[in-house]
Prior knowledge:
The protein has about 280 residues and is α/β, with parallel strands linked by helices. The chain is about 30% helix and about 20% strand. It has helices spanning about 15-25, 45-50, 70-80, 100-105, 145-155, 170-175, 185-195, 220-245, 255-260; strands at about 1-10, 35-40, 60-65, 85-90, 95, 110-120, 130, 140, 165-170, 200-210. Strands 1, 2, 3, 4, 5, 6, 7, 8, 9 and 10 form a ten-stranded mixed sheet that branches. Strand 6 (about 110-120) and strand 7 form a beta hairpin. Helix 7 packs parallel to helix 8. The radius of gyration is 19 Å and the shape is globular. The protein starts with a strand and ends in an 18-residue tail after the last helix. The mean pLDDT is about 90.
Amino acid sequence: MLISVLTAVHQPSAVYLPQTLASIAAQTLPTGWELEWVLQEDGPASSEVAGITGGHDWVRYSANGAKLGIAGTRNLGLNRVRGSLIQVLDSDDLLLPGALATLIPHFDDLSVHWALGQADDLLPDGTRKSFPPYEGLPFGRVPAGAVNTWALETGGSWPVHCAGLMLRSTSVRVMGGWGGVPTNDDLVMFAGLSGAADGYFDATTTWLYRQHDAQTVRGSHHRTWGEETRRMALQRAVAVRNSGLRLPDAVPAASEKEYDVSVAPSLKAVVPVDDPN
């Protein structure tokens, strides 16, 4: 059994990667589980990012080759995921000791498709700040649609932080991966998944959310398109609710060999525009 930690990285957040790696390497896993870190760089390969993979055979690094944005980068990383479970982890955040061992057992229940622990903010001075859980979303099992109902009633403020989600890889693939939007791609994905499947909200603090000036959520993309993409997530929540869509109990994840599908040339060939035929 394999869990894949999936991280999209871009400059300048790469400066935090050694700490992120150390937090993953320190994880203990339930008996029978193994770990891989799928690290996908948004842009050309950089020696700074590629260099941290040296000596770690459980780190699988690749680069897009061009700047594609966070959604495209996460989805290209998903293309390489081999695990039955995915732990989302941003390149500047940290897993706390025991994080994976805390959440993995919730997936013994085949009707649970996602899980999440609490997070503390990691402030620039190295101190931590906790915040109380959201009212109306108690810890424990979360029925399909409950998260979206909370978000719809509060104008698009989700009561969970998607940057720390653990997910069934098959469920993410069924839902089409992360939303192809400039920002809030994780909310668009999670609006679909949490609307169609049960999850589990664990009271344990399992990760640290780093606050710093170069965060993606402080960038121009988020300021420009944050409101529109949250609206798209809400629209997806409504669509899933009205459709009655529900994911069944999880089936065993496909084997690595089964997902290693071959890709043939497209049947619709691209003809040069100056070809007279």
